[in-house]
Prior knowledge:
Elements: H1 9-16, H2 25-44, H3 51-58, H4 67-108, H5 112-153, H6 164-180, H7 188-206
Helix pairs in contact: 1-2, 4-5, 6-7
Amino acid sequence: MSNEKRNIATKLETESKYLTNILDKQDVKEFKKLIPELQDTWMKKQMFRTETEMRFSVLSDNKYPTKAAKYWQSVREQNTHFENLVHLSFDSRKNDVEIKKLKRDIKKEKDTLEQELKQVELEEKIYAKAQMELVAKHRMREVATWSKLKKEFDDGNFDKEDVNNHQAHSYMLRLQHQKNTITPGTSQPEVFNVMGQLDTLERVIRDKELQAPKNRKKLK
């Protein structure tokens, strides 16, 4: 998708003449001077997570302590953006149809005020189209980056077909990390939650309800 397709400079230029309804003349003049900068800001604003945020925030070691855990969370994140991208495609197609209908209705409309109102709605739809295209670009960036991360975490030592097969090991490490962060100031509900899950996971492993995590230390 080209930068031209998402270019809103002409839309800002067109809209600036209507800003006199809500801004004084000096502010409108200042706005016009800022149009190139605002176009640049609109294009490069952050939308969704950067790769840096994916690595240290989303896939933090304390929450996803194994490569398997990071891989499967990457699957979830990628799927979320993939599904949103598909739904956005539907919304964009509907918006395109609405643009065509408004253009048709404007030509047929006899009432000048109704025609003016439909023109405003048309310009709003055109702006929405540019916004959808920008969102789609960033959703695709997330889809592609999560694909990159999945390949990176795939070391061939875990099951990539059944998410359940890594969870006993990954959750054990995660809960042990959480247990180690408990202090006298930790709230009772938080302690209850962490210890309850850890004790239960250890019990179901001892009772062979679940397969013991690979390479786990002896439970104490």
